[in-house]
Amino acid sequence: MTDSLRPHGNNRTPLPPTQQSADGVPSPRSPQSKQAQGDARAASGGAKQRDAFFDNAKYLAIVLVAIGHAWEPIKGDSRTLETMYTVVYTFHMPAFIIISGFFSRSFDASPGRLQRLITGVAVPYIVFETAYPLFKRWIDEDPSQEISLLDPWYLTWFLCALFIWRMTTPIWKMVRWPLPLALGLAMLATVSPEIGDDLDLQRVLQFLPYFVLGLCMKPEHFHMVRTRTMRIAAVPVGAVALAFGWWAVPRMNTAWFYHRDAAQELGAPWWAGPVMVLAMFGCSLLLTACFFAWVPGRHMWFTALGAGTLYGYLLHGFFVKAGDYQGWFEAAWLHRPLGEIFVTVVAAAGVTLLCTPPVQRVFRFAMEPRMEWAFKRDAGRLAREREKREGAAAREKVNA
């Protein structure tokens, strides 16, 4: 989620100037319509203009993440809720990861971008990978809970994965067939249970194709799914997905949607892993396209919250886990339809509040630390600043 998530664009399609957002996914700017294309042209001339579509998509995706986590403790008694949970888990993280990849296209491991990667992704990972186990020790009275930076806990896997994906971006930009290669690695991961839990590499590899797909995409690819025809087509596709989910719930292991286990660990034959990678990649892309088709492209009341999705992603986990540890979800009335609706509304409202500017100001020290003291100043920037000062001094002498 999350997230935690810079420079964008390529030489052919100019995109607005770089600016990293709080959630580790670069600040979204990409033309979507005639008006947005005009904004993009203005941005190429120096103005900084966020694209409402991507902010809206990030916010809505993070709301679905929080709702899915809130559903998890209560879904066992409801086939309807299990169906909705399955459908949501098919596309909410793939959509978020595709956006992350799209805005990572010009990452080149330069000092400035590496610095932003460290402060925007690595540091939040270390902070929350420490905070979550300490929280469990306190609220669950579990002194045995260990702190390990090598074993991502709960939500922090995404930050670990994003760091690895971003660092490998120059490789994916260099190879001739990046997406088939990424799919091949994901397929191999599903037949390799010996990979283990270190750095949650199963998830890193199995979700990798979505990030690489985002790297390969251009603004016009998002335009293609955001037409009236696609919005209309998304309705029957969503209905079919729900119907299939209803059928599949008692017949399919939901753990496939987490992308964290090899086929053998799920009690399936080894060949099922590669098959499921391809099948779920296709299903996820179809539902993600439907999701993007219905994301509004204009400025909405929640658009500004798209810049704070890392805050909502990482902080909502404390409330979900507190409810789990304290038995809040065990109340019988929460397992009835009205209770399920109540949990859904509370989860959506809660993560919305956690994305707001006041929360961002309070937790910015952990999510977006400046840390200028930790890095050497860029020699090129120092030279440019010196030239600017010398030029200003020379002009003053001439004017005098």
Structure description:
This protein is mostly helical and 400 residues long. It has one domain. Helix content is 62%, strand content 0%. It has helices spanning 34-44, 52-71, 79-102, 111-139, 157-167, 169-174, 178-189, 201-206, 208-216, 219-225, 228-248, 272-294, 309-326, 337-354, 357-367, 379-399. The chain is globular and about 85 Å long. The N and C termini lie far apart (57 Å).
Provide a short characterization of the protein structure.
Residues 10-22 have a biased composition (Polar residues). Helix content is 62%, strand content 0%. The protein is mostly helical and 400 residues long.
Which features does this protein show?
400 residues; mainly alpha; 16 helices; 0% strand; globular; acyltransferase activity, transferring groups other than amino-acyl groups; acyltransferase
Architecture blueprint of SSEs:
Elements: H1 34-44, H2 52-71, H3 79-102, H4 111-139, H5 157-167, H6 169-174, H7 178-189, H8 201-206, H9 208-216, H10 219-225, H11 228-248, H12 272-294, H13 309-326, H14 337-354, H15 357-367, H16 379-399
Helix pairs in contact: 2-3, 2-13, 2-14, 3-9, 3-11, 3-12, 4-5, 4-13, 7-9, 7-12, 11-12, 13-14
Biggest β-sheet description: none
- The percentage of residues in β strands lies in under 5%
Order of helices and strands: HHHHHHHHHHHHHHHH
Query: What structural class do helix, strand and pairing data support?
Result: mainly alpha
Based on Cα principal axes, name the global outline.
globular
Q: Kindly state the number of beta strands.
A: 0
Number of domains: 1
State Rg. 22 Å
Termini gap: 57 Å
Average pLDDT number: 84
Helix content: 55-70%
User: Helix tally?
Assistant: 16
GO molecular function: acyltransferase activity, transferring groups other than amino-acyl groups
Protein name: Acyltransferase family protein
Organism: Streptomyces ferrugineus
Keywords: Acyltransferase, Membrane, Transferase, Transmembrane, Transmembrane helix
